Structure formats: structure tokens, C-alpha cells
Amino acid sequence: MSGMTWTVAPEAHDSPAAAALWRAYYTEVSDRWYRLHEGRSTDPDELEREIAADTGTYLAPPGGVLLVARYAGEPAGTAGVRLTDPATAELKRVFLRGELRGRGGARLLVTAAEEHARALGARRMVLDTRHDLVEARALYARLGYAETEPHNDEPYADHWFCKPLAPAPEPEPGT
């Protein structure tokens, strides 16, 4: 549709839009894992416990940020950044609603996350993902992320990526 546009902006990690997107993200990745490994969807009680257990406070300032993408004004996806040390940021919760994939929103989210990581002082971005999240792995490769050795011990991670972040451009004199 013409006239449909993307916006990406920081939002509180516990806002209603962020909470709804976290639920959609976690439901999708959990169901995908259980369907692949056990041939079933996530147990509803387990889903509620796991969603509640990860409050996302690590995506709050001063050491983190949650970005919410909107398409035509409606919440469509997220990307989070958290500093793991003064020079390293970790990309978290990259998600786009299924019906909006393929329209450039994921690239916008990751690019905005990289900008925010630079603003926090990071010189590199790391992330982890799973083997079955093939779309995510393809996106990260297209955006210049290289697979690397594990940087954490996340139990569901199968692939780890890293990308150097060029310094933010200096402002023009007199601006």
C-alpha cells in the first residue's frame, strides 16, 4: 500500500506496545523451538512464566535501550541494545511481526540499534541466535555481522555474531 511508512524510536521496555511485542516475539520463538524439537506448541503455563521472568530491565537507560518500530503508526517490531562492557553492546529481541516481514523494517531496526549502541560508546555489537532462526541469521549476514566464537553461555544459542561499529560521524563545525 502506498503511504505506509516505518518509524523507529526508543520506548520504555515495559510500555504496553513493548510488552505486546515481547509476548509475540517470545511466543513465536518458543513455539518454533518446541515444534521443531518436540512436535508441539509451548505449554501455556510455561509461556507465561518465561515471559514474566524476562522483564527486559537490561534494555532501560542508562546501559540499554529498546527500540519499537511502527508501520503506519502501529507497533510492528523491536530491537534492544544493552551494554555488556564499555566497548561492547549486545543486540537483543530483534523481532518483526510476521505479516510485515520483507518490507525493510528489520534492517531499519538493526541499523537504529547500531546507532544507539554507538551513542552508548560501543565499538562492537554482538548477538546470539538459534539454528532454526534462519531468517535472522540471513539478516545479520546481509548487514555485515560475522559468525564468531561464543561470547556467552545462553542455553538455546547455536550461533554467535559480531560486527565492529564504526565511530559515529563527528558533527560539522558550526552545526
CATH homologous superfamily grouping = Gcn5-related N-acetyltransferase (GNAT)
Strand content: 25-35%
Tally of domains: 1
Task: Please outline the major beta sheet.
Answer: 7 strands, mixed
Q: What share of the residues lie within helices? A: 25-40%
> Which fold name fills CATH's third level, the topology?
Aminopeptidase
Would you identify the CATH architecture?
Answer: 3-Layer(aba) Sandwich
Secondary-structure element string = EHHEEEHEHEE
Pfam families: Acetyltransf_1
Keywords: Acyltransferase, Transferase
Organism: Streptomyces glomeratus
Protein name: GNAT family N-acetyltransferase
Characterization of this structure:
With 175 residues, the chain is of the alpha+beta class. It has one domain (6-164): Aminopeptidase. It is built from 4 helices and 7 strands; from the N terminus they run βααβββαβαββ. The protein has helices at 16-38, 44-53, 105-119, 134-142, and strands spanning 6-10, 64-71, 74-85, 88-96, 124-129, 146-148, 159-164. The protein has a 7-stranded mixed sheet with strand order 1-2-3-4-5-7-6, sandwiched between helices. The longest helix is centred in the N-terminal third of the chain and has 23 residues, at 16-38. It is globular, with a radius of gyration of 16 Å. The chain starts with 5 loop residues before the first strand and ends in an 11-residue tail after the last strand.
Blueprint (SSEs and pairs):
Elements: E1 6-10, H1 16-38, H2 44-53, E2 64-71, E3 74-85, E4 88-96, H3 105-119, E5 124-129, H4 134-142, E6 146-148, E7 159-164
Short description, anyone?
Residues 20-167 form the N-acetyltransferase domain. Helix content is 33%, strand content 28%.
